[in-house]
Amino acid sequence: MLRVLVSVLAMAPAVGGMQVVGLGPGRTGTDSLKKALEILGFGPCYHMSEVLIELSGISTEGHLELWRDAALRAGGALPHNEGKDLVEALREWNSGVDFPFAMFPDEMLEAFPE
What we know:
Oligomer: single chain
Order of helices and strands: HEHEHHHEH
CATH superfamily: P-loop containing nucleotide triphosphate hydrolases
CATH architecture: 3-Layer(aba) Sandwich
InterPro entries: P-loop_NTPase, Sulfotransfer_4
Helix content: 40-55%
Strand content: 5-15%
Keywords: Signal
Pfam families: Sulfotransfer_4
Number of domains: 1
Largest sheet: 3 strands, parallel
């Protein structure tokens, strides 16, 4: 177990940028995963609670519109190149789990292919 933990810690990001995208839906341990990722050095971790409460202290102003635009694009009601940019809006986060990430697996993988 210690060897695995050391390996994971060695891969933790040294600088900002999305490194981990968890696409599991809410109520499946995502809050525990969020806390674990932050302990392992992949924080701050974006979670639906951030949209509502900003627990990490990072502003999520405009994020409700961000996710609305993503839903409209996914449903074909908004052209692919219009609306708020996911990469730009999430640039301060190193990981993300729960909703709304889980609602947009294709968009998340396109925005953060690494």
